[in-house]
Amino acid sequence: MPKIIFFAGHDHDTWEKTGGKGVRTNLEADGVYEEFDTNFIIAKGAVDLLRKEGFTVLFPQQDKRRMTLKQRVDYANAHGADLMIDVHSNASASRTATGAAAFYWYNSAAGRKAADIFAKHIKANGLPTWSGGTYASQAIGWSSFYMLKYSEMPAVLTESFFFTTRSDLEKYLLNPKVQKVLMKIHANIALEFFGKKALDTALDSVVLPDGREVVKIGSRGAEVKYAQIALGRHEFETDVDSIFGKDTDKKTKAFQEAKGLVVDGIIGAATWTELEKKPQAKPVVSKPAQKEEEDMEQTAVVINGTADAGAATLLAFQLGCGVFFRKDAEKRQVAKEIYIAGGGKGKIKGDNLIDLSGKTRSDTAKNVTAKLK
How many angstroms separate the CA atoms of 309 and 279, rounded? Predict the structure, then answer.
């Protein structure tokens, strides 16, 4: 079994000795955020998780001993570690800097592999990244990190958000739920690096939009139904039956692949965010005016504009008919039976008009969704 070594960036008394690697804040009872404390919490949590998975994990700071950078690298090299993970949180002169990233030595393909795993899971949880989630440390300059430069094994140095930015400090670094996610993400660096199955971090996601729940194969209920409707809006139609079965799993993975997300079939924070975006409406091409009534469409859905196309397109798909803009339906009768998705009957031409319009666009969408049942 591979041997992993963890370090928590800096020391437990760095702030007391130098006034550095921390920041004064009213978010902490003692008025000070000390970077080491969060680094230690995340590192220790990841160590515990990996040990449960059967890995040999070294954590020389288990007792919070003080260690210089040279002592740390010498320890890792002497013990023949196969992977080193150095846990930090970031700092910047800018008070708006945000996001997490993993550093690797510029010419280390293995280090980059570890950094990519970190970035992938940060993004999968809908958490912000800095520099796209990875950064190549250079031999000269500010990123020439000692731990990466002199280690004899693949190494990654993670920077989990900016403690100098209040929003990052409050929302992420001091949030116990986010800390739990970060523990698993750091454990996953080692698990995936050595070909093992990653821990499911999506179930711990803390940034789901609008209070949504994480759903995946086997899930049932209203959230699954909403996800199925949303998939349909993005042209990944599946049965709207409130049951997350094999077809919904297949369409979810296809949607995730199309959006550049982690393809795991789990609708967590990142996937919900993409699902709840308005789909890019395709040009709606109406048929030319029909002179003969027998040539007229049997059914049609009429919308005011592209902003109304979401649920209306799903309804049209179910009815097997076309979608027309209101201006066309007011010039001529586009079908024998017309479903109106917004704006009321107005001047729409036709005898059999089914008006699904609500007072607001949201109400209209609800009416259309109800018709889909």
Answer: 9
